[in-house]
């Protein structure tokens, strides 16, 4: 069956196929900020599992987090339906599961239909808020409060919705929400709560609202773990033939999943993830988080710039490349591992083996450019803690991590803007889009304009990059020797490329 000739997946097709994925007609119980691959391959899949097990009976309304989002129209064309494919190796054997997910009721673009989002916030049924806006979403952004218009930032949206709900229900305690951010930021619930309080104060909202938000709402710290690669580009025809329909939102992920939640007493009963047989823990996050963020997400972020600039496009290709694998192993075993707390250091070797096996999953094509989204915030959350802890412990710089920071700087070397889109050029392989906050990409573009060709003196650019305290939360130039090392490695990458520079350092 030709992909373009296949029927579109939607409610009409489902009715004609006499299919019932198990959530049709369930009320909206979840407000979801973010509609990307990860949310659909993790949270919405979990909602589906709870619905199928008979423990939840609720769906999510998905809110587009940024003005440039492209998923909501597709969601609505498909009546919230999409296909999730789990591919991987389990117990040494290939495993694949295909599920039709119906846990999303609809999508809303808040920049076009803010009134519709406010109406959803008035629903008594809505109890939970999940979000994944990447690390960049949990940051302060000064903006005015306009009740009839969606704020740009996630904390702004959340405060506006909470305040609307507070007014609508007259401050009733039972109208409070349980808020579970899934961004990979340490103490993400506490960070989001602090940002919401800052927004409310900036907007001059009444003390009674702040008291209600404190007493009636719960901001939970969470940790999420699943590799979701998204749409399987190049496989459209085969999937249309196999499924019998065309799915614009088909997503691929690994079978593995982990969700750790620090929440109020009784949350495990109210959000029955464990009863649905999911790998979920209601527990303290500290040790889980350090292992996962530093030894899985950190290497991902390293590869997004280092391996991409070396001419590789996916995580799997990178870990199968002898030179890049040697570099990655050194970073993980000799540097990141040495920065961990003693408890996690003892468990690190097994975890590293598991991570590398997951990275090499033959059924996933995890594109490095997808991982590069908001790479500056990701570097701060995923790599800088390891760099700082190693430097403090060893009184020396972790060279593989420093090289990754230099590669990130070169990755952000933009060559042109097109509207708000920012593009760089990979040597000999054409352009790529650099997707991050416009204020940061614009600043780096301006800084790079000072460089005149690949042999330019990059010390000023590196100093400015490391001194972007709005990104890093501190001036990284204060770390002894870091500026000189980043400059040297960036010059090497610019002049001879990633591979030659890695050989000169000794990662070959």
TrEMBL record:
SUPFAM superfamilies documented for this protein: 6-phosphogluconate dehydrogenase C-terminal domain-like, NAD(P)-binding Rossmann-fold domains
UniProt domain Mannitol dehydrogenase N-terminal: residue ranges: 29-274
Q: Which UniProt keywords apply?
A: NAD, Oxidoreductase
Does Cell cycle appear among the keywords? Answer: no
What Pfam families does this protein map onto? Mannitol_dh, Mannitol_dh_C
Q: Where is the Mannitol dehydrogenase C-terminal domain?
A: 285-487
**Which reactions are catalysed by this chain?**
D-mannitol 1-phosphate + NAD(+) = beta-D-fructose 6-phosphate + NADH + H(+)
Q: Which domain of life is it from?
A: Bacteria
Name the PANTHER family on file: ALTRONATE OXIDOREDUCTASE-RELATED, MANNITOL-1-PHOSPHATE 5-DEHYDROGENASE
Q: What is this protein called?
A: Tagaturonate reductase
């Amino acid at each position: 069956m030709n992909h373009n000739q296949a029927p579109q997946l939607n409610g009409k097709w489902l009715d004609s196929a006499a299919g019932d994925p198990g959530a049709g007609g369930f009320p909206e119980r979840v407000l979801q900020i973010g509609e990307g691959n990860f949310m659909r391959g993790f949270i919405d899949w979990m909602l589906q599992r709870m619905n199928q097990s008979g423990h939840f009976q609720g769906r999510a309304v998905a809110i587009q987090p940024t003005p440039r989002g492209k998923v909501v129209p597709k969601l609505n064309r498909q009546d919230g339906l999409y296909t999730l494919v789990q591919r991987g190796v389990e117990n040494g054997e290939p495993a694949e599961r295909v599920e039709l997910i119906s846990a999303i009721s609809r999508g809303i673009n808040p920049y076009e239909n803010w009134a519709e989002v406010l109406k959803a916030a008035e629903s008594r049924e809505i109890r939970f808020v999940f979000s994944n806006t990447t690390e960049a979403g949990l940051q302060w952004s000064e903006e005015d409060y306009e009740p009839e218009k969606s704020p740009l930032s996630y904390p702004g949206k959340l405060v506006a919705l909470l305040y609307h709900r507070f007014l609508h229900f007259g401050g009733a305690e039972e109208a409070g929400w349980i808020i579970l951010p899934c961004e990979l930021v340490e103490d993400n619930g506490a960070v989001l709560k602090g940002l919401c309080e800052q927004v409310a104060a900036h907007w001059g909202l009444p003390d009674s609202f702040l008291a209600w938000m404190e007493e009636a709402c719960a901001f939970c710290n969470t940790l999420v773990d699943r590799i979701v690669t998204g749409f399987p580009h190049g496989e459209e025809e085969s999937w249309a033939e196999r499924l019998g329909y065309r799915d614009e939102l088909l997503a691929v992920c690994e079978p593995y999943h982990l969700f750790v939640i620090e929440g109020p007493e009784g949350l495990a009963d109210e959000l029955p993830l464990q009863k649905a047989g999911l790998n979920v823990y209601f527990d303290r996050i500290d040790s889980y988080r350090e292992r996962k963020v530093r030894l899985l997400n950190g290497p991902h972020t390293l590869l997004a710039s280092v391996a991409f600039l070396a001419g590789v496009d996916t995580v799997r290709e990178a870990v199968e490349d002898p030179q890049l694998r040697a570099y990655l192993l050194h970073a993980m075993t000799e540097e990141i591992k040495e920065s961990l707390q003693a408890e996690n250091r003892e468990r690190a070797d097994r975890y590293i083996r598991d991570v590398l096996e997951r990275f090499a999953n033959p059924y996933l094509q995890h594109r490095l450019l997808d991982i590069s989204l908001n790479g500056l915030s990701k570097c701060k959350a995923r790599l800088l803690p390891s760099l700082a802890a190693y430097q403090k412990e060893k009184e020396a710089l972790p060279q593989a991590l420093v090289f990754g920071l230099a590669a990130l700087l070169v990755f952000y070397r933009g060559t042109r803007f097109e509207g708000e889109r920012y593009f760089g050029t990979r040597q000999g392989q054409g352009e790529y889009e650099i997707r991050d906050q416009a204020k940061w990409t614009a600043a780096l573009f301006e800084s790079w304009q000072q460089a005149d060709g690949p042999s330019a003196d990059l010390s000023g650019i590196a100093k400015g990059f490391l001194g972007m305290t709005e990104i890093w939360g501190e001036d990284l130039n204060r770390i002894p020797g870091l500026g000189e090392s980043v400059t040297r490695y960036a010059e090497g990458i610019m002049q001879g490329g990633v591979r030659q520079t890695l050989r000169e350092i000794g990662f070959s």
